[in-house]
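User: What would this chain look like folded?
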Amino acid sequence: MTFTRRHTLCVLSHAASVGGWAALTGIGLAAHPVLAQTRKTGVVISISLEPDSLDPTQSAAASIGEVVHYNVFENLVRINENGTLSGQLAHAWSQDEAGLRYTFQLRKDVLFHDGAALDAQAVRFSFERAGAPSSTNKARKALFDNIARIDTPDPHTVVLTLHHPDASVLFRLSESPAVILHPASAKQAASAPVGTGPYQFAQWRKGWGVTLVKSRRYRHAARVQLEQATFRFISDPELQAQAVRSGEIDVFFNIATDNALRFRSDPRYQVLVGASNGKGMLAFNHRRAPLSDVRVRRAICHAIDREGFIKNVLHGQGSAIGSHFTPADAGYVHLTGVYPFDPARARALLKAAGVKLPLQLSLSLPPTPYARAGGPVVAAALAQVGIVLDIQPVDWAQWLAGTFKGDFDVTLINHVEPLDYKIYADPAYYFGYDSADFRALVARHDVAPNARARALLFAQLQRYLAADAANAWIFTPQLSTVARKGLSGLWMNYPIFVHDVAAMSWE
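Assistant: Here's the prediction, encoded as structure tokens.
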């Protein structure tokens, strides 16, 4: 069964545990994971950010999904590269006419990595855990709070009853926050995850990388070509390029654009450029004055030259956006015209707001190439209108512990989750946007009676966020992946950030 949407687009405690996993899988692990790999039977994938956990159901970092989603953990349904949905742990599903009741039929040949069989109770456990009052699941508000009831009439049937219709519910169920965990090991999922996917966790060397090995219990193990996958964490753009050239890395996902360009003429490599659902923006802390004043937020929006940012920081590989939506979203409205680049207008708005210049603000920069390169560009632009940014580079752990908890003025960040606009309906979210009118609009969209009504309200959602300058949206990026020639099965477009290692092979 396939449902189509428009989208183009983590450490073992003891060394003995590593030996246990190796014995289980029949694969020996050397002291250095890369040395343990044979070129034609393994792959080394490098990503920019090291996750803070390997449990995507409790932590927010998108980098978690890059390592474990599709590889260690699976969902009821999965998102494909072209944005379509297909069965994964569920081989079929249906919904009632009201769009409130979804019935999923589970596969009967699924085992967790420890040999336990998947059943409906594991699904129920995972979803109830994600929706619990104490849950830190980033999809709790968008997905799990809308689940009114979970029924398991038999071991291979799960029935979800929603409070209100949600046209995106199947898509939400296929994202990493909705993966199915093993009830017996869920508490250890952050450091030693146990799932149903084609690969099982072997080792996490903090500050270096995570190693996964092929699971012999995977239902399609015979189809999986690569025996091992290592995810290396390299944030420095120059070190990224060096690691690829030295042969240490086979694939570098989302490599800095200027580095990717260097490999285009090298016959040893392939450069894949594709679309994403990313929303790159200067995010505001609405809890802090004067950012709580819409005139100040609008001034900042006018002060940023989006096209200049894309040209100078992304080397042209991106498109300007004016709200928390991308051209990959069905019903997208192009709203960059709401805030054209206009420094004079920015200065006038700051004057009208009574802001005493120079205005001092802190700028939190995560360790991503677009942020580290883009921070000075944004700072220079705002300086022209009297806003002085104190640039504060932070590592990913610091960003999550500080910025993501609300300790910031502004931050340059790319939100990669598709259709995640409901974060603006949550005043507790890190930028603290609090609009009763927007929440009411979201509620109307949720219960819209037909496609036409939903489309009209979807456009209103976009226009409302833009008019309110909830954040200063700048770009949606094109993603560049550099890979060694001969490696096939790589994605080009990324409706979600995953690396489907089971689809990869060496030619």
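The first strand starts at residue 2 and ends at 3. If you want, I can go into more detail on any region.
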